[in-house]
Amino acid sequence: MQFFGSSEISPSPPVPTASGNNAHMMYVFNRNGVCLLYREWNRPLRTLDSNQDHKLMFGLLFSLKSLTAKMDPSSGDKGNLGVPQLPGQGCSFHSFRTNTYKLSFMESPSGIKIILVTHPKASDLRESLKYIYNLYVEYVVKNPLYTPGTPIKSELFNTTLDQYVRGLG
Amino acid sequence: MAAIYSLYIINKSGGLIFYKDYGLAGRMDTNDSLRLASLWHSMHAISQQLSPISGCSGIELLEADTFDLHCFQSLTGTKFFVVSEPGTQNMENLLKHIYELYTDYVLKNPFYEMEMPIRCELFDINLAQAIQKDRVAYLGR
Question: Domains, chain B, ranges and CATH?
Fold first, then answer.
């Protein structure tokens, strides 16, 4: 598990690989599974109401994490399947791809999960997620009016995020 | 080093019907492999629900820290997935080839019962050859 550099935002964000907005939506969860932020840019299909959708997404990530931790071929003893793991413990995953979308996932040491859903041909977005995490630290965590564990309502964070994600490949 | 760590085949209801291990970490416990297979089946289904665009057919590639998981689903709902080294190319073709072997040596076997565990000697032999060929191609690169 890596920690993310200094507290300052790196002066130049990772270079976007292509122009155009390919991002569909983004989720931020805290370690208790509370959805702190949900942004949507392009989502023609909606099968569930938003609360159910967030729960399903968190459940999918939780289960996929325990699946990868158990399947990890590099170590012998991996504990039991389904036992909750601390952030950074066990083998995790960073993305999966279907024929219609690609989901990139990052978990910080404090258990903040950032999920970005993009076009399936999007490149490796690990650096971009780290940059978004830095944005979160700068605009949300350092905001004295923000209570940890509550939904994010920072206008500044939203506009900066929109701007950055629009430029992503 | 092996390019492929393990191969799973699950039937349309999520039951594990074939599991083979090629890695060095040792064979997984039978109960665990069954659980992992049905867990994958459910995650595959949930990923279709969460798609922002219609026409999603489930996870094709899962990239973890220490492995890649490539999945291929046949039209009848049987899923084939291999766990390989990160960044291994050409797994789609290998999976399609394994599917061909499955149709030839398992489905055409008159003693095979549908959706039941695969115990066909010819399938085992040809699968071992296919994996060996893939490994040689991998080392030759």
Answer: 4-140 (3.30.450.70)
Boundaries of every domain in chain A: 23-72+85-166
Question: CA of A145 to nearest chain B CA: how many angstroms apart?
Answer: 33
State the CB neighbour count (10 A cutoff) for residue A117: 25
Structure-block tokens of residue B127: 């699968």
Rg (CA), chain A: 16
Per-residue pLDDT tens over the stretch B7-23: 999 999 999 999 999 87
Q: Report the C-alpha gap between B2 and B23 in whole angstroms.
A: 7
Rounded CA-CA distance A70/A86 in Å is: 14
Q: Which of B18, B14, B36, B13 is nearest to B106 (CA)?
A: B18
Distance from CA of B84 to the nearest CA of A (A): 9
Tokens for A136, please give them: 């979160």
Domain A23-72+85-166 has CATH 3.40.1550.10: no
Whether ipTM exceeds 0.85: yes
Contacts with A90 from chain B: Cβ below 8 Å: none
CA-CA distance, A118 to A121, in Å (whole number)?
Answer: 8
- A139: tokens are 């605009």
Interfacial residues of B (vs A; Cβ cutoff 8 Å): 5-6, 23-26, 32, 35-36, 39-40, 42-43, 46-67, 69, 83
